[in-house]
Amino acid sequence: MTQKSLITGGAGFLGSHLARQLLVDGHEVTVMDNLFTGTKANIYDLLDNPRFTFMLHDVTQPFWGQFDAIYNLACPASPIHYQRNPVETIKTSFLGMMNVLELALKTKARVFHTSTSEIYGDPEVHPQPEGYWGNVNTVGTRSCYDEGKRAAETLCADYAREYGVDVRLIRIFNTYGPNMHPQDGRVISNFIMQALGQRDITLYGDGSQTRSFQYVDDLIRAIRLFMGLAPERVRGFFAERKLGVPVINVGNPDEYTIRQLAEETLRQLPESKSRLVLAPLPQDDPRRRKPDITLARELLGWAPKVPLSEGLARTIAYFRTIA
Amino acid sequence: MTQKSLITGGAGFLGSHLARQLLVDGHEVTVMDNLFTGTKANIYDLLDNPRFTFMLHDVTQPFWGQFDAIYNLACPASPIHYQRNPVETIKTSFLGMMNVLELALKTKARVFHTSTSEIYGDPEVHPQPEGYWGNVNTVGTRSCYDEGKRAAETLCADYAREYGVDVRLIRIFNTYGPNMHPQDGRVISNFIMQALGQRDITLYGDGSQTRSFQYVDDLIRAIRLFMGLAPERVRGFFAERKLGVPVINVGNPDEYTIRQLAEETLRQLPESKSRLVLAPLPQDDPRRRKPDITLARELLGWAPKVPLSEGLARTIAYFRTIA
């Protein structure tokens, strides 16, 4: 029987990759999106697929549908977008998660939720294992995202514990690739757009803060592996580890400084005349973050495959088509 | 002009004290409560006051009313109650706060919100100043309360920053007194009920974890002082301190071990035959918590006045009437 899947936020960067892959896998795919940061362009090639449906709807409003799996990806994820309307951001995280879990409870759908390394905030432990509780400001300008995502995890844990909803979470670390929003203000899209536009590349702070960059295909592979596991396997694996909910980090632990990323971007764009310039670090910007991916390796036999130089080349090729 | 005040959760322990005091101050007081943990008995003597109204309503459902001030106290606050239905607990925190802030935005009401020392989780800094970000598990059995309360703070900060809602928060540390729920499982009510019932007094862990205990009258005084300040004074004070929202700790920094509390309870109940017994510490139970009340002193000229021995005597007198 064909699997029916709903992807909230499916017209966004990650959602559009997931939709495309689930169609390749033979699923019937419904993409729900309010098109606030997602865009029809990301899924344009899917619209005439008979197994694909687009549903214009905001995840904060209740919805109904019979699906085997619900992938909850709806939430603006870049500071530029989520700080434009902080109240809507935290509502999207919380109410969206609540609506997804309520529907899953009533229809017995399996739930995948995209959590984030941002729930670790400005971590005091490196690399971050899933058992680390994080270091997050409740009342700062990033809190609408961080605390919204933290509360969404809590909802997942409680619906799983109290009502037996089969929910699986990945804390996603920095991910990049084609279909990223060119104006989302995140470092890879910023650098490529600046270099392509012959504008100087801005390093916040001194550029020595590190990030791990995961190519989108690696993440999508992990999501599919995780959602394909039998519930008993998931329960058994996490019961031993006392984490409270099936949650794994997925990211690429290779660390690069922001300055190294800028230099690699310029190396791949030899025609660019951009130079590196410095600007002050924004409030609450995490200094360093790197995933501990032991659990993903053990549970899924997963490890990232695409090196930065290759992923960056594919991403630059995409940005050339839209710049 | 008489001030109109709404107290959500006003039939609970703290709410009933606040309602009584605001009536003394000359306010018109509406108490909203779903009576899940609150009880009519707590406000029975107020029901025939012409300036008092009781409204049976759940704060998670939208409501309307023209008030000068809204005091948001609705949320089960003891682990025994809030863990009975974790999903409802986090919904109460988040949706209740959202409904209060939406109403305040539309009606220009001033908002007081009861946050909690639980947002600090199991703190790694002692005592805790308001700038400390806390150490909280997102997916544990206490998370429904802790993360719900953290997200409520974030909502307050964002409604204040984005929409100019005049919101003031107190992070309340352990508070006790008459009208506490006798079965709420918190340490003071537990010990008194056990001693009055001639049952052994249970110390979790070895009883060496410390707590600060604040008598309810001290807290109510701080709430009234805080809500009485002019908005310019509040803005000025917190703008200097870069906290993101007007928030102060209110609690009694005198530390007692749980064992000392048990011994003082038994000293005041010489007729009790109860003995001290040990039991394992529950998951995520904070080992130690003590407020830094510098901001409350500076902003309100406030300090706690009622010593533990006196507050305990008044509380024991109350429990004798209901035991």
Unreliable spans of chain A: none
Topology order of chain A in helix (H) and strand (E) letters: EHEHEEHHEHEEHEEEHHEEHEHH
Estimate the global geometry of chain A from the Cα principal axes. globular
Query: Which band does the percent of strand residues of chain A land in?
Result: 15-25%
Rounded to the nearest angstrom, the distance between the terminal CA atoms of chain A is 42 Å
By CATH reckoning, the class of chain A would read Alpha Beta
Q: Quick one: biggest sheet of chain A?
A: 7 strands, parallel
Query: Structural class of chain A, please?
Result: alpha/beta
Q: Name the strands of the widest sheet of chain A in spatial order.
A: 3-2-1-4-5-6-11
- Helix percentage range of chain A: 25-40%
Describe this structure as you would to a colleague.
2 copies of one chain form a homodimer. Chain A is α/β, with parallel strands linked by helices and 323 residues long. Chain A has a single domain (4-180, 213-251, 290-301), classed as Rossmann fold (3-Layer(aba) Sandwich), CATH 3.40.50.720. Helix content of chain A is 40%, strand content 17%. Chain A contains 11 helices and 13 strands. In chain A, helix 6 runs parallel beside helix 9. The longest helix of chain A has 22 residues, at 86-107. The radius of gyration of chain A is 19 Å and the shape is globular. The A-B interface holds A 85-87, 90-91, 94, 98, 119, 121, 133-141, 143-144, 147-148, 150-151, 153-159, 161-163, 243-245, 247 and B 85-87, 90-91, 94, 98, 119, 121, 133-141, 143-144, 147-148, 150-151, 153-159, 161-163, 243-245, 247.
